[in-house]
């Protein structure tokens, strides 16, 4: 029986490794460099004997070779360093939840820390450079802390990408854990107690951490993030994400709705649904009677069409119904997955923020083709029109890359012209950074000189700032619903965000409350704010009165949103 279980385990491991053509996987717990050696030192028969009182395969994913003896006896303090996207922030909450359960403690004071965990990002060279500098600092710190044992762990996307370099060249690193192996962290950290180096960068086809309730590092915050899916199947030619985070998989609807409910009960007022591509969400455990939605005209995918399951529109429907006073945001998205149904529900629900992320990446059809984005400039512009028609008052955000392989001045000017045509409220603008393993690395030349990339980046920023200034000035005199987040350290002014995620600043004041009395403003309040000034990234206002999300939209602009769930 035990042998069968071990065979099943190994076959499951092998299936995972081979079923995905993007996954290069291994799991090891030592310094020797040969892969065969590493496999030999994986879980042994005795580990499975110890496990034999429990079924190896339960619904809940679990690490079958975490032994009681492996667990750390002393309480150890962990210092978290987080780099990169919002997904990484949320992953850090998942890691903290896993470690807290195992008796670890958290610290924000370096000198107190026994373990430094660095959540890393590999998307551009700049992100990695910052992390190497941080590692230099930590290595020095570890050397100086001779009298006590300090461990360094590298988590996330760089872990997958640079495991050999991190372990073999940068001797100071003790643990390397990829984005799908956080459940294994207690074991990996325990192994380091005996001076071993522990690595698990296995990518999974089904890990979503659905059953791990993240424990927020910034507990007091009025907003929270929820990962609804992981990985990406799009394989844009410039992007490392499918290699570092693996295949796309979605969390079950029910676990997401439960988490939103739990956060609402804790007083959280804003939830952002996170994923590499939230709008291709698909809970395949749920059958739907509805037909699959079609992609908008002019959009295609590199992967075979997926069918069935609960889609993003269904999820939005359920999540926004949990608490009509909770704002719902979502990011990141791909323009290919905005069927009519999604636009409709965004337009109908007052608590779904009317800000859509439509990352264009380039305004040139030729560059888009080289990037393998699956649409042309014309199809993208048509989508923008459709979105604006269906969701009056909608805000748009985008990501743009300049200096991609072979980008000519004319092609770049098409990006600038797209930015002139589309009014983006928020844009993330990047000079291209060639990443190993990507299709672009294999197929194209990184032939736009750095200086030109820099200059093009500047020109994009200039248009973006100029246009934002104009868009924001047009808001002067309007009243916005602002969710209060906190207070500025220096000025003591109140900081909040409007529906389009723009920062709104105003002075503390006693204003009319819902009960007819007056009270000051505090984090978590919804306040109606009259806009009186604007910069390219900030609005300045005067607070008028306390309100609720439902009341505000009943009384204010954009009549289509009167319907309250
Ligand atoms: N170079 C520059 N920007 C990149 N992005 C992804 N890969 C690269 C790269 N190699 C940008 C894209 C993506 C965002 C998250 O990062 O614009 O949407
Ligand atoms: Fe990267 Fe493209 Fe996937 Fe976004 S959609 S994560 S850019 S591969």
UniProtKB/TrEMBL annotation:
Name assigned to this protein: CDK5RAP1-like protein
Residue span, TRAM domain: 473-545
Function: Potential regulator of CDK5 activity.
Gene Ontology molecular function, alphabetical: 4 iron, 4 sulfur cluster binding; metal ion binding; tRNA-2-methylthio-N(6)-dimethylallyladenosine(37) synthase activity
Gene name of this polypeptide: HaOG208748
Cofactors, names only: [4Fe-4S] cluster
Similarity annotation: Belongs to the methylthiotransferase family. MiaB subfamily.
Ranges of residues in domain Radical SAM core: 218-471
UniProt entry keywords in alphabetical sequence: 4Fe-4S, Iron, Iron-sulfur, Metal-binding, S-adenosyl-L-methionine
Species in which this protein is naturally found: Helicoverpa armigera
